[in-house]
Every structure is written in C-alpha cells, then in structure tokens.
Amino acid sequence: METVFSKIIEGTIPAHKVYENERILAFYDIEPAAPVHVLIIPKKFIASMNEVTPEDLPLIAEIHSVAQQLARELGIAESGYRLINNCGPDSGQAVPHLHYHLLGGTKLGALVGNSASHA
C-alpha cells in the first residue's frame, strides 16, 4: 500500500531524517506537537499495531530500542518523553502505516490514567 511514509522510505518525499538502518527510519514530524517530535517507522509495511504478527516482534523491540537511543541523543531521556502508537482511526492514526511518535523537550500534558491513583 502506498502512503506518505512509503514515499518517504523510497525517497520521493523528503524528510529530515534522524536515524536510518535497513529496517527502521526516524524523522522529524512536519507538524510537531512538542519541541522534539520524531516519527519512528518500520520500513516493512504494517498498517497498524493490529497487524503485527509474532514474526514482527523483533522489529517492534528494535523500534523501542531506537526510541531509547534517540531520546538520549536528542537530550530528552533524563527529563522524560512520551512514545505513542496510535492504532486505528478513533485513536487519531492518520497514516495507515505503523508508526510511533517520540515526544519531549517540554512538560507534556497529562493523559487519561496518568495520575498517581492509577499507577
């Protein structure tokens, strides 16, 4: 399936890349929701978290490892960051290609279930 992300992967749409290997690409979001807002995507097409198979789990683990690395490199690991995966239209997933948002660089607002009583 062709998406804006597949076009970024193939290089027909430019992106400000911060990480790339043969399986994963990370680049700055063009409409940032925080001072640091990076998208991390697998190069393999997976429409959403609902389509992740057991064979994809090493790739998902690698994405999380890349997120940790980027948080350190971008100076947000110590102060804190958010790693978000939206799944499906009601969640706000706008591009049907699995992706994670790495957000930080400011105090982020509370989310549902983000209080001490839910810890």
UniProtKB/TrEMBL annotation:
Gene Ontology terms for molecular function: catalytic activity
Coiled coil: none
PROSITE patterns: HIT_2
Motif (Histidine triad motif): 97-101
Location of the active site: 99
Boundaries of every HIT domain copy: 4-117
Any one Pfam family match given in the protein's UniProt record, by short name: HIT
Name of the protein in its database record: HIT domain-containing protein
Organism, as annotated: Paenibacillus monticola
Organism lineage string: Bacteria, Bacillati, Bacillota, Bacilli, Bacillales
